[in-house]
């Protein structure tokens, strides 16, 4: 087993860990450990909510979750010799659940506290608990379903430079200013409430907490991309913006559907990751990887070959308004069509079907993006995850 460079105690919040991690992005958050290029090591991670969700049938913890706390991340890891302009090469060697924590959760956030992709259709909180059985998972809250997971970090990225951080904050502030009273908000701006910044204290903590970006969205450095195929065997090329790169990770998922549509998205879990790192000097300019990471997926994923595919087009689902090439609306319609079908085929409630689409390894696609005025998106559900034939008969 590789050396464990970051350990977590699941009974303690992140700021009380022996080595605290962080839940904001800022170049001045100090690294917790340093490694040389070529190093192989293990990082343990808490679940993204920092242990706020319990293994029970009560969704009130989803409803009342403190979203200023998320995401708690392990790191940063300083990679010796990495400089701005380099590429940080990260190989995901393996991922697993922590001992005595072989379960995960999924949830629908309430509209007034987080919301979700289908927030106007599902406004109230709901929760499903998933038990792990080797590579498979089942849930007492979604009977008749069993599938293989594709474990991955929902969130992994390098630290931003001061210039990049300023750019994030300006553009997201401008977005919020367009509709500052919107629920849920258009973006989550910096706040010191519930910030965790490693071992920083006092005035330096307050300064960074006021400036640091929230971890909620993906950005140029990677971050919360929630890509389900970023799994075992994947190699990622991250732009380096600060000395040491300052790599951090967390938000581990046992499984997830494309889009992570419930927001409390895949099957959230505490776990560990084995990583290998290296550096390509001057790699950003050499390969023109300057705006976002690039990755080569690994060879490990569930072997599902038969799907039932649902289509959606860019016509508003409630008003009937024709929208122009709106892939967001088209994918929403594909998801809503699948939910309505599963309510009949499996006897699920809408909430159960919605959570299934967030957790099972469903495939989302932009099928057509040129045939005006309708974009077409598809959602493909593997049929063998069900204990019965769900095809129309």
Automatic annotation (TrEMBL):
GO function term, MF aspect, one: hydrolase activity, acting on carbon-nitrogen (but not peptide) bonds, in linear amides
One Pfam short name: FmdA_AmdA
InterPro entries for this protein: FmdA_AmdA, FormamaseFmdA
Gene3D superfamilies with a match to the protein in the record: Acetamidase/Formamidase-like domains
PANTHER family for this protein: FORMAMIDASE C869.04-RELATED (PTHR31891:SF1)
Name of the protein in question: Acetamidase/formamidase family protein
Lineage, uppermost ranks: Bacteria, Bacillati, Bacillota, Bacilli, Bacillales
């Amino acid at each position: 087993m590789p050396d464990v460079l970051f350990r977590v105690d699941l009974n303690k919040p992140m700021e009380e860990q022996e080595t605290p991690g962080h839940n904001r992005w800022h170049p001045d958050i100090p690294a917790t450990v340093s490694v040389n290029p070529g190093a192989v090591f293990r990082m343990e991670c808490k679940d993204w909510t920092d242990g706020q969700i319990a293994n029970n049938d009560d969704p009130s913890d989803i409803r009342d979750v403190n979203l200023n706390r998320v995401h708690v991340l392990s790191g940063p890891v300083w990679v010796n010799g990495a400089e701005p302009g380099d590429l940080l090469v990260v190989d995901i060697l393996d991922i697993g659940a922590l001992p005595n924590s072989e379960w995960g959760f999924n949830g629908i956030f309430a509209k007034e506290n987080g919301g979700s992709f289908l927030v106007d259709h599902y406004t109230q909180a709901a929760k499903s608990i998933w038990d792990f059985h080797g590579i498979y998972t089942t849930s007492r809250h979604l009977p008749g379903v069993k599938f293989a997971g594709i474990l991955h970090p929902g969130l992994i990225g390098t630290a931003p430079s001061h210039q990049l951080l300023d750019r994030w904050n300006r553009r997201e502030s401008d977005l919020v200013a367009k509709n500052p009273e919107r629920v849920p908000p258009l973006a989550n701006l910096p706040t010191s409430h519930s910030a965790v910044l490693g071992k920083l204290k006092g005035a330096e903590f307050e300064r960074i907490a006021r400036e640091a970006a929230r971890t909620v969205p993906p950005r140029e450095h990677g971050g919360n991309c929630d890509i389900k195929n970023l799994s075992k065997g994947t190699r990622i090329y991250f732009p380096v913006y600060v000395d040491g790169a300052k790599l951090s990770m967390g938000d581990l998922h046992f499984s997830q559907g494309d889009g992570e549509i419930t927001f409390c998205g895949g099957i959230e879990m505490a776990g560990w990751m084995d990583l290998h790192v290296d550096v390509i000097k001057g790699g950003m300019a050499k390969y023109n990887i300057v705006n976002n990471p690039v990755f080569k997926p690994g060879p490990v994923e569930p072997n599902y070959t038969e799907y039932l595919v649902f289509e959606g087009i860019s016509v508003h689902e409630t008003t009937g308004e024709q929208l122009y090439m709106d892939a967001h609306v088209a994918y929403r319609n594909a998801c809503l069509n699948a939910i309505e079908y599963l309510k009949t085929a499996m006897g699920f409630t809408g909430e159960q079907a919605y959570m299934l689409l967030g957790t099972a390894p469903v495939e989302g696609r932009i099928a057509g993006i040129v045939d005006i005025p309708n974009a077409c998106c598809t959602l493909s559900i593997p049929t063998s995850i069900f204990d019965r034939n769900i095809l129309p008969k």
